[in-house]
Design a protein that fits this description.
- The structure holds 2 protein chains of 2 kinds.
- By secondary structure, chain A is of the alpha/beta class.
- Helix content of chain A is 34%, strand content 22%.
- In chain A, helix 1 crosses helix 4.
- Chain B is of the alpha/beta class.
- Chain B has 11 helices and 16 strands.
- In chain B, the strands form 3 sheets. In chain B, strands 1, 2, 4, 5, 6, 8, 9, 10, 11, 13, 15 and 16 form a 12-stranded mixed sheet that branches. A two-stranded parallel ribbon of chain B has the order 3-7. A two-stranded antiparallel ribbon of chain B has the order 12-14.
- The radius of gyration of chain B is 20 Å and the shape is globular.
- The chains are: A alpha/beta, B alpha/beta.
Chain lengths: 309, 397
């Protein structure tokens, strides 16, 4: 296939929230401040704050009618454990008090797509809306899928959010998978066509050049996804300069990407781990060696890799 | 980034699988729906929980573990057998739409945690949204992309959209794509507390409709690029020509009363298919039987199809199957393929007195013969203002 047939997709906005469970998340400055952040659950709040921050970095505001086209803006959310915190709050009420004690307020947020709903309402995002919930790789899957939607012309711009929240029960359940502690985390990106970014004077920090996902055991899926993404990008593994991944995933790729340094992702951030590290990498001053691969595997199988240049 | 084929590859349906309140197998579901029967029924054993009739899958007991995974595995096996696909490995992907995934294992964990908060907990297997998809991938040795869409009640259609994009991008060669959701006290109590359910069998598009009935099930379609399917001599049961989604951006639990988001999704699906409104020969609607959804959908169809909205026969299968949540779009896609193959549009079970505010050509009473049927538009909408539509076209039948 001719990759030149697809428009180049670049990252023009990025932001992250990475805090201890329950810690304050409201930023000092908003593109569009919500009337009450406390009206929504914490998953939605984290996602909204991150999305707003990414718009700020991209110098985009829904209030700017000349630049903003809500109907042609896509929203893609990726999450591993989604609304489990609200699910637990809601279901504890049912278990302890019976169906008559079920809370309609809580039940309304028992969907992984709630963050997409809140962001779409708040910022007037009316284009394609997708929420991916495929485990720890879901954040990078969302990034890859957002880029694919822009490349395919389904939208002219995409807001991508990776988000997960911690609870004591979840901490107990994931401990067996080797995740020692959890954070509340969200990372967000604004993606657009390179030509559109140039036309509005934005300076892209990186281009998304390829991605791939693989199923099967993570020991095979992770290198498989990176190799497939490299093939898609017409790159040799030796060309990679940086691996953005959790320490365990980076170690598993060490034999493949021998010339690459590691930019460690915070495993406590779950599906937002590699995306949050990618935001940190984009934010860093000084030299940022390219190309890089951001990769994530799920202990239950499957992995996704995204290559930026 | 992700590349797009220079000459766009058409996506075809080569296999179908389903399980619903009518039982296991596509034909059990199709015959029940096309004959105008109802799988929804009162469940005295769930008195105090269920706010009205529901449609339970008869082959999977209500207290069985991993119910959604059991249903999903059945439907995926049926679909892959029907397609005659023997490929394994990285060429085969799985996409799943679900609102609840493998939640049953987690519900048990929460109950145990409530009873004994200090006790050690063993993590349930595959309890997140990806659980049923991982189980399918493992059983089919599918090591291509596994993607799970969870966009409320539009999830089933969203999974079909993900599959279209994977195939067009040549990310894999075969996708087992569909939806699955199973009922539990968690979700039944939730819809009950929202007062969204009718205490009687539901009546989509009826003037006296009062709400939905819940259902459960799973459905999968085997999707391939046409050239690959032809090369292996597969029967093309239908074309999956287009997908579109759009957000209402209005309200978290109620639809845009004017249907603008759903209309954008429908228009996007038709544009993706390269078809215009005049070609739509049947609309498989979301049709939940809530007052606002059905009215919204009529307005959306008018916005998206214009004068053609009143010409294509419309049905809702939710009066028969109940609202199967994340499985709904996939089940309706399977039934749409059967409609294209047989030229029969199933009736809307429960529809008696038409709502005068809904000027659609609704099919009620018995199936309508439409031998010339070529194109079906299937629509879904859900909480959070999500809307997704797919366009299916007649295959080799």
């Amino acid at each position: 296939m001719d990759r030149n047939s697809s428009p180049a997709v670049v990252i023009t906005g990025w932001a992250r929230v990475l805090v201890d469970p329950g810690a304050p998340i409201a930023p000092a400055r908003w593109v569009a401040q919500p009337a009450r952040l406390g009206r929504m659950d914490r998953l939605c709040g984290l996602a909204l704050v991150a999305a707003d921050g990414a718009l700020a970095t991209a110098a985009l505001s829904p209030a700017d009618a000349a630049l903003w086209d809500g109907d042609r803006t896509a929203l893609v959310v990726g999450t591993a454990y989604g609304c489990h915190a609200t699910n637990e709050e809601y279901y504890r009420g049912v278990v302890t008090g019976g169906p008559a004690n079920a809370s309609p307020r809580a039940f309304a947020y028992t969907l992984p797509s709630s963050p997409a709903g809140e962001i779409s309402i708040h910022h007037g995002v009316r284009g394609p809306s997708e929420t991916l919930a495929t485990g720890l790789a879901a954040g990078l899957e969302a990034l890859a899928f957002g880029a694919a939607m822009v490349a395919a012309g389904r939208a002219t711009r995409a807001i991508v959010v990776a988000v997960d929240v911690a609870t004591p029960l979840l901490a107990k359940l994931v401990r067996a998978t080797g995740i020692p502690s959890l954070a509340d985390a969200a990372a967000a990106f604004v993606l657009e066509r390179a030509e559109d970014a140039a036309a509005r004077g934005a300076t892209p920090r990186a281009q998304l050049v390829a991605s791939a996902s693989r199923g099967g055991p993570s020991s095979r899926a992770l290198p498989g996804a990176v190799e497939a993404a490299l093939a898609d990008a017409d790159l040799a593994a030796g060309a990679l300069r940086t691996i953005v991944a959790t320490p365990a995933d980076a170690a598993a790729l060490r034999a493949l990407a021998t010339n690459a340094g590691a930019h460690p992702a915070p495993v406590a951030a779950l599906a937002a781990a590699a995306p949050a590290a990618l935001v940190e990498w984009l934010d860093a001053d000084g030299e940022r060696p390219l190309p890089i691969v951001a990769a994530a595997a799920d202990p239950d199988g499957g992995a996704t890799a995204v290559i930026l240049d | 980034m992700p590349r797009r084929a220079t000459a766009r590859d058409r996506v075809v349906v080569t296999g179908l699988g389903a399980v619903s309140g009518f039982g296991a197998g596509v034909e059990a579901t199709w015959s029940g729906v096309v004959e105008g029967r109802r799988a929804v029924a009162a469940r005295p054993e769930l008195a105090g929980l269920a706010p009205g009739p529901i449609a339970l899958v008869p082959t999977v007991p209500f207290d069985a573990p991993a119910r959604a995974t059991t249903m999903a595995l059945f439907a995926a096996r049926e679909a892959i057998t029907d397609a005659g696909v023997t490929a394994r490995g990285a060429s085969v992907g799985v996409t799943l739409g679900t609102t609840l995934g493998g939640i049953h294992g987690w519900l048990r964990t929460v109950r145990e945690h409530v009873a004994a908060p200090e006790a050690e907990l063993a993590a349930p297997r595959r309890w997140t949204w990806s659980g049923p998809a991982r189980a399918i991938a493992e059983e089919l040795h599918a090591e291509g992309p596994t993607l799970v869409a969870s966009v409320a009640c539009a999830s089933g259609n969203a999974a079909l959209g993900l599959a279209i994009d994977l195939l067009r991008r040549h990310a894999c060669d075969v996708v087992v794509a569909g939806g699955a959701d199973a009922l539990s006290d968690f979700v039944i109590a939730g819809f009950g507390c929202l007062k969204a359910c009718d205490a009687e069998p539901s009546r989509p598009f009826d003037r006296t409709r009062r709400g939905l009935n819940l259902g459960e099930g799973a459905a999968f379609l085997v999707l391939e690029r046409e050239a690959d399917a032809r090369a292996r001599g597969a029967r093309v049961r239908a074309f999956l020509d287009g997908y579109g989604s759009a957000a209402d951006a209005v309200h978290m639990t109620g639809p845009d009363r004017e249907g603008r988001g759903a209309a954008r999704a429908m228009r996007a699906a038709l544009a993706d298919a390269g078809l215009d409104a005049a070609t739509v020969g049947h609309i498989s609607s979301h049709g939940t039987a809530t007052v606002f959804n059905d009215l919204m959908e009529a307005k959306a169809l008018a916005l998206a199809l214009g004068e053609h909205a009143g010409r294509a026969p419309v049905n809702s299968v939710k009066g028969a199957l109940g609202h199967t949540l994340g499985a709904a779009g996939a089940l309706e896609a399977v039934l749409s393929v059967r409609a294209l193959e047989t030229g029969l549009v199933p009736p809307t079970a429960g529809l008696g007195e038409r709502d005068p505010e809904i000027p659609l050509d609704l099919v009620a009473g018995e199936a309508r013969a439409v031998p010339s049927l070529q194109v079906v538009l299937s629509t879904s909408s859900g909480f959070g203002g999500t809307n997704a539509a797919v366009v299916l076209r007649r295959g080799d039948s």
